[in-house]
Amino acid sequence: MKAIAVTPGKKHSAQVVEARRPSVADVPDGRGVLVKVLRVGVDGTDREINDAQYGRAPAGEPYLILGHENFGQVEAVGPAVTELAPGDFVVATVRRPGRSLYDAIGTQDMTTDDVYLERGINLLHGFLSEHYVDSADHVVAVPRGAREVGVLLEPLTVVEKGIAQAYEIQRRLRVWHPRRAAVLGAGTIGLLATLVLRLRGFDVTTFGKAPRPNRNASLVEALGARYVITSETSVPDASRRDGAYDLVLEASGFSPLVFDGMEALAKNGVLVLSSVTGGERRIEVDADRLNLGFVLGNKVMVGTVNANREYFEQGVRDLAHAESAHPGWLASLLTHPVKGLDRVSELFDKLNGGARDAIKVYCEVAAS
User: Fold this and answer.
1) pLDDT band at residue 280, thresholds of 50, 70 and 90?
2) Beta bridge mates, 89
3) Is the pLDDT of residue 281 over 90?
4) pLDDT for residue 356
5) Residue ranges of the Alcohol dehydrogenase-like N-terminal domain (predicted)?
6) What value, to the nearest 5°, has the Cα angle with vertex 160 and ends 222 and 358?
7) For residue range 234-250, what is the model confidence (pLDDT) as tens digits?
8) Mean pLDDT score, 300-321
9) Nearest to 121 by CA among 69, 81, 156, 72
10) Measured between alpha carbons, how far is 18 from 196 in angstroms, rounded to an integer?
11) Is 157-303 CATH 3.40.50.720?
12) For 279-293, what is the mean pLDDT?
């Protein structure tokens, strides 16, 4: 079967390869699920792996099949699978259990292992292929009514986890009723965060760098949230003008905004970090004042990355909710399709900025 793979450690090596077609028998205990891949989203992780910044092939393999944002349709199941059937639409989770205690209880997204097992990222093949097989334990059903937007489930789970973790942490307060939220960044994750927070009833301000008019600002405002341009109003200035935020979700990819988020956070507030940033950027901050505000204000900062099955299942519920509350909104994020696995250059050109106003670039692997 065809797949898009890289040679780990070799820059810009993404190419079409001929890979072995998997079988349900590849999974022990009769729990295999064979999936025909329909769509795969690409993001900065795929770009960075193709830039040879990280990523390792499975043991004994010369290449790593890319792709972690997946959506497909079940073709066959093993004899011990009762929860899925041929024809079902599905999304697979990304990280697989390692050796830590957290992996053993199904929370591999919280692993203390130094080595991650992640499909399409590290030591496990991904989903940019015609088929994949996995255990039913890691495959989540998507209702037919959400089939057009199912490829957004994996990035949505990063948001689901971050918000759920904020509430879990604040159980310590006995009573926590957050009302105001800020989202830093208006890319895919920032837009999905704006959506979920609005579905939860938050008053949301989303900060972006692009001046109006732009597609992302229109999408934010279509949800009843505010769009603020950071070059005109900083995050701390907006919080002083409108009131501090009970929950801040940082999704900008620009690490200095983390400190703006700290400053704009209300007492008993939670700052959720979702950006994975590299480099060696340095800035000056008012460290004593920020520290004092966190200590005296009982504030919390927590990171969110990857997600376990719990957050995928919550994401499915929110996909359905969003389709009902805001019909067509999620589909409008799917801005730049690339038809077929053979068009590798086009896929990465769009991912690398060659597509104007792109929100989500994805590969149409096959039709359902």
Assistant:
1) confident
2) 73, 142
3) no
4) 82
5) 32-143
6) 50
7) 999 999 999 999 999 99
8) 96
9) 69
10) 39
11) yes
12) 89
User: What are the structural domain ranges in the chain?
Assistant: 2-142+335-364, 157-303
Pick the closest to residue 181 from 54, 266, 69 (CA basis): 266
**CB neighbours of residue 136 within 10 Å:** 23
Retrieve residue 156's tokens. 């949505």
The first and second tokens of residue 320, run together, are: 């359905």
| pTM score, whole prediction | 0.96
CB 249 within 8 A of CB 257: no
Q: Which two tokens stand for residue 89?
A: 């639409």
How far is residue 161 from each of residues 68, 71, 82, 90, measured CA to CA in Å? Answer: 17, 20, 27, 19
Structure tokens at 228: 């603020």
> Among 129, 52, 72, 126, which Cα is nearest to 342's?
129
Summarised one tens digit per residue, pLDDT across range 64-109 is: 999 999 999 999 999 999 999 999 999 999 999 999 999 999 999 9
What's the CATH number for 2-142+335-364?
3.90.180.10
Task: Dig out the tokens for 125 from the structure.
Answer: 């093949």
In terms of DSSP H, where are the helices of the chain? 44-50, 101-104, 153-169, 188-199, 215-222, 235-242, 256-264, 287-296, 309-325, 344-349
CB-count exposure of residue 239 (10 Å: 0-12, 13-18, 19+): buried
Which pair of structure tokens corresponds to residue 153?
């489930």
Task: Tell me whether strands 2-6 and 203-208 are parallel, antiparallel or unpaired.
Answer: unpaired
